[in-house]
Amino acid sequence: MPKKIRTCFDEKNTFENLLHAHYRARKHKFSKDEVIKFEMNLEYNLINLKRSIENNTYKVGKYREFKIYEPKERIIKSLPYVDRIVHQWYVEEFVKPYIVPRFIFTSFACIEDKGTHKSADCVQKYMRTFLRNHGDFWVLKCDIRKFFYNINPNILLNIMKKYIKDKKLMEFTRLLIFGSRDDDDSIGIPIGNYTSQYFANIYLNELDQYVKRSLKLKYYVRYMDDFVILLKTKKDCIYYKKVISDFLKSNLQLELNSKSRYYPYKMGVDFCGYRIYTTHKLLRNSSKRKIMKKVKKWNSQYHDGTFDPSFCNKSLQSWYGHVSHCNSYHLTKKIINKCDFLINDSFYEKSENNIIHDIEENKKM
After folding, report:
1. CA dist 283 to 109, 210, 220, 273, Å?
2. Which of 15, 55, 286, 322 is most deeply buried (CB count within 10 A of its CB)?
3. What integer pLDDT is reported at residue 352 of this predicted model?
4. CA–CA separation, 319 vs 289, rounded Å?
5. Are the C-beta atoms of 355 and 317 separated by less than 8 Å?
6. In a 10 Å sphere around its CB, with 0-12 CB exposed, 13-18 middle and 19+ buried, how is residue 123 labelled?
7. By the 8 A CB rule, do 312 and 160 touch?
8. Cα distance between residue 102 and residue 82, in whole Å
9. Residues near 126 by Cβ (< 8 Å), separated by ≥ 6?
10. What is the largest CA-CA distance in the chain?
11. How many angstroms separate the CA atoms of 295 and 132, rounded?
């Protein structure tokens, strides 16, 4: 693999590549008005997009802002559909094949065949290995304060220059990073862009490389802006927390969150939705409270006649898929036992599988 991306921008800008980017961008959104409108004249729109990229006339559209409140309040910025096609094309053609392979093995966010479950599994594997090889140990658990809002786009651009030699691609990268900003000195990248997930990972890859290559810490796992390091002593935790904090401030203009702390491993590691121990994994308490709240809402809807069995089934299956990766048998039975709504034939017809039926059978035993 070449050290830098060279002279491939034009050859990657093809109708076929943009068409595949469109198919990826419309996934789960094919019924949206803007997607339907774009597809009504698909060939013409893609050819125009291709030409605008070739002629350097492509401009990033205006953002639409809205708020989400789970797991906490965040401002999400959404671009017009054509920009989402461009983001898919950029990530698939340049970031994934050339930059992602340079990430460390224990970086798990936004990478194919990785994710939260494998991240949690890796932490548990490291905990068991550390305990077997070195005995009792300490956990340094950190996250970064308002990560996306504090990414410096100028620093990000300089990091991208390490990977990109192609001048056209570099100018296009500058355009995507700075987007439709009124002020080039403003800080942060928008949550919601497909490119933002990868730019954020590339930004913190600087920390990953520092921890692994300079500090030579073996037991390090990162999922986006949360990371865990296993160390022998409390003194090591205090030292490395200070060293990492200094590196983040001086090189990336980031700060550790006040929740960053260190503690003995026997307390378990709160990471990626689980409380992880050397012997088992449990569901995070906040997740338990959330599903209890949902069940209470569904029970209320069931009794007042507004219950939607199809939606409930999908939601329960999503939750079950998450808890099935930890020790959750008794918790699952407890949740289902609290459900007042009945499992009937119409429910089964709308169900994708019989997870709820299996658990309901346990309820009868």
Report:
1. 20, 32, 22, 7
2. 322
3. 40
4. 12
5. yes
6. buried
7. no
8. 29
9. 219, 221, 230
10. 69
11. 41
Residue with tokens 């050397």: 278
Could you report the per-residue pLDDT of 204-231, keeping only the tens digit for each? 999 999 999 999 999 999 999 999 999 9
Contact predicate 232/238, CB 8 Å? no
User: Which residues in the chain land under pLDDT 70?
Assistant: 1-2, 70-71, 180-185, 342-365
**Token match 């002593």: residue?**
233
Strands 64-68 and 269-271: what pairing?
A: unpaired
Looking at residue 113, what DSSP letter applies? Answer: T
> 3-class SS at 344?
coil
Which secondary structure element, helix H or strand E, spans residue 22, and what is its range? helix 15-25
Q: What is the DSSP letter of 5?
A: B
Alpha-carbon dihedral sign for residues 67, 72, 77, 81: negative
Query: Which residues, 6 or more positions from 318, have their beta carbon under 8 angstroms from its beta carbon?
Result: none
Closest among 115, 131, 101 to 2, alpha carbons compared:
101
Six-digit token string for 168: 């056209």
Distances (CA, A) of 299 to 303, 315, 340: 6, 14, 6
254 within 8 A of 206, measured Cβ to Cβ: no
What's 174-220 look like in SS3?
A: HHHHHCCCCCCCCCCCCECEHHHHHHHHHHHHHHHHHHHHHCCCCCE
Which amino acid does the sequence have at 329? Y
* pLDDT tens profile 335-350: 888 888 755 444 444 4
Give the long-range contacts of residues 28-36, CB within 8 A, separation 24 or more: 32/81, 34/80, 34/81, 35/81
Strand residues in the chain grouped as ranges (E): 64-68, 74-78, 138-143, 220-223, 226-231, 261-264, 269-271, 274-276, 281-283
Separation CA 336–CA 339 (nearest Å): 5
Q: What is the pLDDT of residue 351?
A: 42
Q: Helix 194-209 and helix 81-90: axis angle, to 10°?
A: 30
111 membership: H or E segment, kind and range: none
CA angle 281, 282, 283 (to 5 degrees): 130
